[in-house]
Amino acid sequence: MTTTPHPPRPFGRALCAMVTPFTKTYELDLAAARELAAHLVDNGCDGLVLNGTTGESPTTSDEEKTALVRAVAEEVGDRATVVAGVGSASTADTVALARAAERAGADGLLVVTPYFSRPPQDAVEAHFRTVADATGLPVMLYDIPGRTGTRIEVDTMLALAEHERIVAVKDCAYDLLGATKVMGRTSLAYYSGCDELNLALSALGGAGYVSTVANVAPRAVRAVLDAFEEPAPVEAARLNQLLLPLTELMMSAGLPGAVTAKALLGHPVRGPLRPATPTETARLRAALPPACDPVCAVPRAPDYSAPAHTGSVSPSGV
Fold it and tell me: Of 64, 94, 144, 273, which alpha carbon lies 20 to 30 A from 4's?
C-alpha cells in the first residue's frame, strides 16, 4: 500500500448529510433548504449529501428529491459538491432517480444497498453496476447494514472498485478492519458515515466524513480533522472529546439523527418520526461543545478552521 499525505477525495473532505427542511405543514421548504445549504458551506462544509437517511428520504417523493437537488445545486453548486442520495429497494427506481439527479445538477450519487429484500452479494454487485452505468456521475456506495440488512462484503467492494465511476464509500458498517482492507487494495475513498468514527477512520487513511452532527456544528466537526492534518493529533483528540457528548446524544441515544439535528435547527420531521421533546432538545443544547453558539448552533472556529460566518440562520430556517 502506498501512503500519501492526503487520500483521494473525489467529493471533498468535510461533507454534511443535510437534513431536508419542511414547513410547519410538512411541505418541502426549498427556501429554507437553500439557506441551510449556504450556511453549511459558509461554515466549512465542502460537500453536501442530500436525500440520505438524515434527509428523511423514505418520506419524500421522487419529485421532492429532485427539486431539493436542483435548489441546493443552484445555491451552492459553485462552492461545494452536491451528492444526491438516490438509493431505493428497486434497481429501476434507483436508476430513474440517478438520472433525474444528474439532470438537476448533482455532482455525484450516493447509492445505498437495496434494503428489505436482502439480495445476495452477486445481486448487490449487479445493482450498483447498473446504477453506475446509468449516468456519467461518480458514485459513492453507502454501506449501512444496520438499516438495510445487507453488508457490502469486502470481496464485493473489491470487485466494484474496478468500475470507473464507483469512486467512494460512505462507511456505516462499523468494521474498521474491513474498511482498512479495502482502502489498502483499492483507490476507493472512504468517508466515515458514523460521527463517532470520523477521527478513527481518518487515522486509517479515510478521505473524510459525511456527518449528521455537521448540520448543527459544522466547524466543530471539521476542526477535529483540521487538527489531525495540521498535524496536531493530540489536539485532534482533545477536540474530538469536546464534541463527543453532542455526538453521542445525536447518534447513539435512541433518537434518529434527523430528529436530533432538526431539534437543534428548529425544523419539523415527517411521520413516522416524531419530534424531540423539550427535555430531549434541552439535553442536546446543553451538549453543544464550548466553542458553539447555542442560539444558532454555529461553532466559533479555532484558528485553523474556516473563517467566521457573518450571517445567521433563524431557528425556523426561513
Answer: 144
